[in-house]
Design brief:
Length: 197
C-alpha cells in the first residue's frame, strides 16, 4: 500500500542519482503539477551542477555559437510558444556551466510548463545512459530518426496531464524539449532549435 505508492513516486523526484553517468541528468516530468515539474527541473540542474567539472573545457559565455555554450537566447518564448501552440512567458534561466535549463510558464487558462534544456560535453555513452534512465523509471523511449546524431522521445501521462519529451544529441551537445503539447509539435520545436546548437 504505502510502500508501493512510494516506490512508484520516488523515482520521479530522485531518479537523477540512479542514472549511471553522473554528468547526465535528464529532466523528469511528474504527472501532477507545474510546481512539481519546476521542482524536478531544479533537482536536475542541481545534480548536474554537483557533477559538472568534466566537459570540453570551453567556458565561453553567451550566445550559442557552435563553440560556446548554448543559452536560452536560442529559444525565445515566442519561438517556443509558436511551435507548441502555447502562450508562454519569457523563460526563467538556470545556468550551471555545462547545463542550461530554460523553464517557460504558460500564460493561458490551463497551466503549462515547458522545459528546454541544453547540456554540453555529451558523448554517445552519456546519451545512451540518459535514455536508459528514462526507460528504467517507467518512461519508455522511442527512437526518433532523422534528428541530430541520435534522438528519442518519451511520453508520460495522458490527456491534459500528458507531457511529451524529445531528447537529441548533436555533436557533444544534448537538447531536451519537454512540454504538455502533442509529440509532433515538440519534435517541430526540437527541429527549429537544433540548427543553432
Amino acid at each position: 500500500m504505502g510502500a508501493a505508492y512510494k516506490s512508484v513516486e520516488q523515482p520521479l523526484l530522485s531518479c537523477e542519482a540512479a542514472v549511471p553517468t553522473p554528468t547526465h541528468s535528464p529532466v523528469r516530468t511528474p504527472r501532477r503539477s507545474a510546481g512539481a515539474l519546476l521542482l524536478t527541473s531544479a533537482l536536475a540542474v542541481g545534480a548536474a551542477a554537483c557533477s559538472s567539472g568534466g566537459g570540453d573545457g570551453s567556458a565561453s559565455g553567451g550566445g550559442g555559437s557552435s563553440h560556446g555554450a548554448p543559452s536560452c537566447a536560442l529559444a525565445p518564448a515566442a519561438t517556443v510558444g509558436a511551435a507548441l501552440g502555447l502562450p508562454l512567458q519569457a523563460p526563467s534561466v538556470q545556468d550551471n556551466g555545462t547545463v542550461t535549463v530554460c523553464t517557460y510558464a504558460g500564460t493561458g487558462t490551463v497551466p503549462a510548463t515547458v522545459i528546454v534544456r541544453f547540456q554540453t560535453g555529451m558523448d554517445e555513452a552519456a546519451f545512451a545512459a540518459g535514455r536508459a534512465g528514462f526507460d528504467q523509471h517507467q518512461e519508455p523511449t522511442t527512437e526518433v530518426t532523422g534528428l541530430g546524431d541520435a534522438a528519442y522521445s518519451s511520453t508520460l501521462g495522458t490527456g491534459q496531464f500528458q507531457q511529451n519529451t524529445i531528447v537529441v544529441r548533436k555533436g557533444s551537445t544534448e537538447l531536451l524539449v519537454s512540454a504538455p503539447a502533442p509529440l509532433p509539435q515538440v519534435e517541430v520545436l526540437a527541429r527549429r532549435l537544433l540548427p543553432a546548437i
